[in-house]
């Protein structure tokens, strides 16, 4: 009995010492600042923060979990917008609000986690450094913690900083795809032959063989587009601003063949593990391409492809694969809007 009393006294002393050290040496809340820069225009960056449907797609706090369920409340954007979330797998839930915004300048978030009645307050300041570069500054104010909970403040800032690092990587991928698409649409000149340097790509898709009779090939392309798009958006959970334009890769001369083999896929920012053996990744190395934009019936593309091949032969260039990038998703019975790219080299 005396032994248990001694143990009890030791425990009380240890808890008392812990509580005293927390009370005198550890602050009940944390205030800190984190600064980052991103190579995208202010208006495009700000829209990813003040629209909570955009925000939750790339912010690692929400996007890192596949089991999280988020409800969005009107007005969806700006002051007064809000979300509630629950994540049964990680035993996590809460609510988040935008309490204030000064467009393209500042935002204030309020985050209630689990059953805590005291919110985390986050003020974010946006500053344009140039036409294509923005500085983002987070000012974080954590809720007050009881004496016994204050040890959490030792790792709060590091945890928040790690989340921002991962989130910024996601944001760069989202904006990279979005800006690339916007720039590509703005620069289109149909039926004009141009030279373009293509960057490296990682494409998830399927290898296919199809009959080239009448419209059989295009029907097959539409079917496989839907197959790949559904897998990427539903099974992998990717949003439209996280993926590139769908692309078909084939031999440049096979439009004359009775049967056509091709790879059809959608560019992603990085290679990830997949469990469905029907799909595979294909890496496309940087190339120099002769390109031409074409709009019309799919069968009518052949004339544009021949223009590219004739140009390569005239310039005494060897050529490789033909890339057909669908600016608009292929739909049965409708004209196509594509960028035809022929890779060339000496």
UniProtKB/TrEMBL annotation:
InterPro entries: START-like_dom_sf (IPR023393)
Protein name, as recorded: Polyketide cyclase
